[in-house]
Design a protein that fits this description.
54% of the residues lie in helices and 0% in strands. By secondary structure, the protein is mostly helical.
Length: 81
């Protein structure tokens, strides 16, 4: 005879993530983190999809061969010129 299945419970990590989501979002948008991500760690800052699309459009017209990595700062500069 099969035992009745227990209702599934969310994992502890899921509950912690959900329970602290608002606090994390507030901290990520705070002045300390924004200032921190303007310096040498700006490559980890968020970037708007329209900025990425505009930079990709400009980069697609380049003809030099090779593989390239373009970080946030360069993508933003490409859209300002």
């Amino acid at each position: 005879m099969l035992a009745a299945a227990e209702p599934s419970r969310p994992a502890l990590s899921d509950m912690l993530r959900e329970g602290t989501r608002d606090a994390h979002r507030a901290a990520e948008r705070g002045p300390f983190v924004r200032a921190f991500l303007r310096g040498p760690l700006d490559r980890y800052a968020g970037i708007d999809a329209r900025t990425v699309a505009a930079a990709m459009t400009r980069l697609a017209s380049r003809t030099e061969p090779g593989h390239f990595v373009h970080h946030n700062r360069e993508l933003r500069e490409l859209t300002r010129t």
